[in-house]
Q: What sequence folds into this?
């Protein structure tokens, strides 16, 4: 994709800047904003993002792409209404490989994105994370919980970058009166995740599709709660359009442990895979589940997509990426995807 200069927007059209817009979440956000009539400028240095995620928007009149590291000064010669700051390596494998870039984009990059929002008088949203709660001692996690983070452990670069980013966002809000939002994103999955990003969904699905053993770390009793990307995007857009400056958890509270999750992937894909237990990475959180009371109350938001529905779309995407033929749906999988019928 070639770099295109932003064209002049039409009057009254909302203008959004999405940092990290070529990534998994940033690209879904960009699609949703374009669908809702925004003019969108994506800024991404492509260290973990991929132009394939936005290639379908090339040539669209409301879209432009700037390849830039957002830790450098961001210059845009057009008005901006919303800045959505999503740029960051986000999978444990990525931020372990790129610890300094992760810390820089969370600190210097957030500073530049906040500076852009302040200069343009734009509203600012920070994509924060459930990792600010670390290995949580409070369960489920509410926004009041301050977290249990090991600053010097391998995950510290991501957790502390995001905690710093939250602190800087609040400082700009308090000191400069910037209208800010903070979303704490819990585990999210869907099409456009990288096959090799190391996260559990692409790892298990690609292993199952190849009939290879599913690598469960530790004894698999650690829990996560998985939200489908479309649900997350709806929650994030509602948050930006709301009036709260407090952090808001967005995630799906349906919690399960990783061994159960591996068995579910084997069942849905019909794979012949076995389970292979591998060592648990250091500081891997034991449990994670969002308390979404605040999102429900302030945004009227709850997740809608079931795990079965979300996984069906995700598995189809990975099948395509792996160049595998489309699956014939089994009677069992058809049953599990059927929507409940209204009573006769
Ligand atoms: N995990 C696993 N096997 C894998 C990859 C991950 O058992 O091949 C586990 C990992 O140890 C963690 C959970 O799955 O407990 C979710 O990991 P992920 O990297 O997706 O994200 P995290 O929630 O840890 O940031």
A:
């Amino acid at each position: 994709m070639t770099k295109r200069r932003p064209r002049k927007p039409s009057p009254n059209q909302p203008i959004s800047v999405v940092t990290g817009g070529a990534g998994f979440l940033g690209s879904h956000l960009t699609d949703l904003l374009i669908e809702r009539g925004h003019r969108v400028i994506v800024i991404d240095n492509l260290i973990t993002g991929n132009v394939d995620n936005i290639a379908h928007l090339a040539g669209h009149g409301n879209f432009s792409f700037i390849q830039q590291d957002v830790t450098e000064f961001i210059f845009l010669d057009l008005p901006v209404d919303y800045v959505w700051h999503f740029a960051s390596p986000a999978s444990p494998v990525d931020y372990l490989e790129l610890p300094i870039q992760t810390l820089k984009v969370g600190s210097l990059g957030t500073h530049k994105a906040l500076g852009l929002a302040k200069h343009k008088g734009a509203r600012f949203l920070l994509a924060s994370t459930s990792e600010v709660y670390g290995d949580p001692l409070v369960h489920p996690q509410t926004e009041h919980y301050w977290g249990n983070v090991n600053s010097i452990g391998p995950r510290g670069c991501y957790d502390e970058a995001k905690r710093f980013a939250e602190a800087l966002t609040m400082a700009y809000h308090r000191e400069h009166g910037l209208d800010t939002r903070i979303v704490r994103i819990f585990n999210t999955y869907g099409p456009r995740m990288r096959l090799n990003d190391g996260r559990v969904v692409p790892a298990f699905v690609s292993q199952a599709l190849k009939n290879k053993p599913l690598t469960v770390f530790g004894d698999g009793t650690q829990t996560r709660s998985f939200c489908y990307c479309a649900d997350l995007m709806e929650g994030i857009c509602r948050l930006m359009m709301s009036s709260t400056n407090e952090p808001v958890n967005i995630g799906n509270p349906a919690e399960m442990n990783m061994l159960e999750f591996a068995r579910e992937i084997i069942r849905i894909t019909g794979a012949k895979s076995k389970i292979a237990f591998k060592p648990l990475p250091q500081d891997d959180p034991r449990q994670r589940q969002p308390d979404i009371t605040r999102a429900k109350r302030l945004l009227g938001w709850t997740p809608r997509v079931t795990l079965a529905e979300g996984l069906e779309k995700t598995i189809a995407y990975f099948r395509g990426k792996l160049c595998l033929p489309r699956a014939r749906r089994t009677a069992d999988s058809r049953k599990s995807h059927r929507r409940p019928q209204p009573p006769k």
In short: The pocket of uridine-5'-diphosphate is lined by residues 91-92, 187, 198-200, 203, 215-217, 222, 224, 258, 281, 284 (CB under 6 Å).
